[in-house]
Structure to design on (340 residues):
């Protein structure tokens, strides 16, 4: 019986220690940026994307992009411009060929883009500049327009005999906004969070819709609060700065990080506050759920077992009383021996 009592005390102590959970550091709110370069096969195109605004009365927008050859052999590329749209809801892009142009004519860009060169040779360990011009004609409607500059490798290099094998095409994406008729519309359509009674959610799957005519970058903050209103988990929405094209959807996964211990059982609330770049007005959605800390359950079970064992068992109570009374008697006996 003494061993059983000691074991129960040990389990209770372990449960008490586990009751206090360390809190991890809170994530910093930051605005991530997209990758500035696109590198394949030793060749780098920079920037890999550009956001361009055409202001009213501006005849054209001119800019450059750079091609860098990091290898030891020259490369020759053919340059072209194509339109692109959303491939799926994960953020992939679909380059639109001539057969599909009718499906994407509203947001097309290629008819208004002029490249100064349609073929270029980049020598080893050197960089070439390619000028680009976007004409702001009346035929270009207000709102968003999307195109890509493609660098396709040719079969031979400038040195003639040496062959260069590059199977991948490099791209520089153009996100163009013609000011003077933009329509903005961002809505969180689906809010998928997996909750459990004994576990807080670790991630959110958000599905945004862009119902406007120009691309948007969602921003936001997701928080989980306990019954006392304290934030116990938090996550940055769209930390990778994913872009949503007009009239399309995009799935955004948001990890949630623990920032405080979540000991209190009860009703918890998950809140997502969001907006898009260049806007301060926010929207929000909420969802509540029941949560009970698993270690609380273990501790209560141990305490309940202890009460049942020693509260309703007469022999156990007598044994415990005998042990407690014997301890002072032994101490007094040892003290008398020392005095002798």
């Amino acid at each position: 019986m003494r061993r059983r009592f000691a074991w129960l005390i040990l389990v209770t102590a372990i449960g008490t220690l586990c009751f206090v959970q360390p809190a991890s550091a809170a994530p910093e709110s930051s605005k991530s940026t997209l990758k500035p370069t696109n590198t394949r096969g030793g060749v780098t195109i920079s920037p890999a994307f550009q956001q361009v605004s055409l202001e009213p009365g501006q005849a054209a927008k001119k800019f450059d992009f750079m091609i860098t050859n990091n290898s030891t052999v020259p490369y020759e590329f053919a340059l072209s411009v194509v339109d692109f749209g959303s491939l799926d809801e994960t953020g992939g892009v679909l380059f639109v060929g001539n057969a599909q142009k009718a499906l994407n004519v509203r947001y097309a860009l290629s008819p208004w883009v002029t490249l100064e060169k349609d073929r270029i040779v980049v020598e080893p360990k050197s960089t070439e500049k390619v000028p680009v011009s976007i004409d702001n004609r009346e035929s270009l409607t207000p709102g968003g327009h999307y195109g890509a500059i493609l660098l396709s490798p040719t079969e031979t290099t400038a040195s003639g005999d040496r062959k260069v094998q590059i199977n991948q095409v490099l791209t520089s994406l153009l996100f163009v906004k013609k000011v003077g008729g933009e329509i903005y519309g961002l809505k969180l359509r689906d809010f998928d969070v997996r909750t459990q009674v004994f576990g807080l959610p670790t991630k959110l799957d958000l599905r945004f819709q862009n119902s406007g005519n120009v691309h948007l970058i969602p921003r936001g903050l997701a928080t989980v609060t306990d019954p006392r209103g304290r934030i116990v988990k938090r996550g940055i929405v769209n930390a990778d700065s994913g872009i949503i094209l007009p009239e399309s959807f995009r799935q955004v996964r948001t990890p949630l990080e623990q920032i405080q211990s979540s000991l209190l059982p009860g009703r918890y609330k998950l809140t997502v506050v969001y907006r898009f770049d260049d806007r301060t007005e926010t929207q929000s959605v909420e969802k509540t759920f029941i949560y009970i800390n698993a270690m609380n359950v273990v501790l209560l079970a141990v305490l309940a077992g202890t009460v049942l064992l020693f509260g309703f068992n007469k022999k156990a109570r007598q044994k415990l009383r005998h042990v407690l009374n014997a301890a002072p008697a032994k101490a007094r006996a040892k003290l008398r021996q020392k005095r002798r």
Remarks:
- The domain at 38-178 is CATH 2.60.40.10 (Immunoglobulin-like).
- The mean pLDDT is 79.
